Amino acid sequence: MPEGPSILILKEAAMQFKGQKVVAASCNNGAIDAALLIHQTITDIKSWGKHFLICFPSLTVRVHMMMFGSYRINSHTEKPARLHLLFENGDELNFYASQLKLIDEPLDEIYDWSADVMSPTWDGKKAIKKMKDIPGLLACDALMNQNLFAGVGNIIKNEVLFRTQIHPESLMSALPPKKLKEFIAETISYSFEFLEQKKAGKLKKNWKAYNKKICPRDETPFIKRDTGKSHRTSFYCELCMKKYS
């Protein structure tokens, strides 16, 4: 599943379509009426967490690539695209295996931009306040909660918890203030590190915990287990990652 940094890379690449008019459009599963997009001009390209947003004058197309989604810019596969957009100059934008939704409300009424870990309006104090309103919240679930940390996925979750030495099943309410501050700072810091490593093609080479078998700090086997209400896989070391409870 593409995480926030990967969607930001897509956003940067797709900015070339801002101001362009759609001359043909199709959706291969009927999730949206693609005909509504024909003769419409893209007014902006936005992102929120894992959501890619194509803005038109009176509506927005939300693209969520889920687990196996992908995209092609100015190229296509033999398989019909979930969403195909063709522009006046012959350029095209294609999404595959993605979830689509049409939004006709103002985006500011739907999205809390300050919850996006890649946004310049990110608000850590607001995130802390939201976490306090969720009893029994575990560290692994906090990071995967898009209302708290929009854009964080399982890679960022595992890398942040390892770097901060926090066991995934730690209670957020039990984290000391200094550790909570470190937890939030590392989440933002690693998200941007992820972005730079992804652009450089060095992301996997720099993983310390995700999909790893041995803890690089203690040289003992990682525990690999689904944790929290999100039931996503965590890789953790029981020697160096403290469980706060």
Can you offer a commentary on this structure?
The chain contains six helices and ten strands; from the N terminus they run αββββββββαααααββ. It is an alpha+beta fold and 245 residues long. It has a four-stranded antiparallel β-sheet, with no helix packed on it. The protein has a four-stranded antiparallel β-sheet with strand order 2-3-4-8, with helices on one face. α1 (4-14) packs across α6 (177-200) and α5 crosses α6. The protein is elongated, with a radius of gyration of 20 Å. The two termini are 30 Å apart.
Strand order of the largest sheet: 1-6-7-5
Low-confidence stretches: none
Looking at CATH, which topology of the largest domain would you report? Helicase, Ruva Protein, domain 3
Discrete helix count: 6
How is the main sheet built?
A: 4 strands, antiparallel
How many domains, as an integer? 2
What is the H/E order? HEEEEEEEEHHHHHEE
* Rg for CA atoms: 20 Å
Q: Can you tell me the CATH architecture of the largest domain?
A: Orthogonal Bundle
Q: Any idea what the shape is? A: elongated
Instruction: Give a count of the beta strands, DSSP E runs of length 2 or more.
Output: 10
Helix content: 25-40%
Q: What's the level 1 CATH class of the largest domain?
A: Mainly Alpha
User: Could you say which structural class the secondary elements and strand pairing correspond to?
Assistant: alpha+beta
Distance between the termini: 30 Å
Rounded average pLDDT: 97
Q: Strand content of the residues, in percent?
A: 15-25%
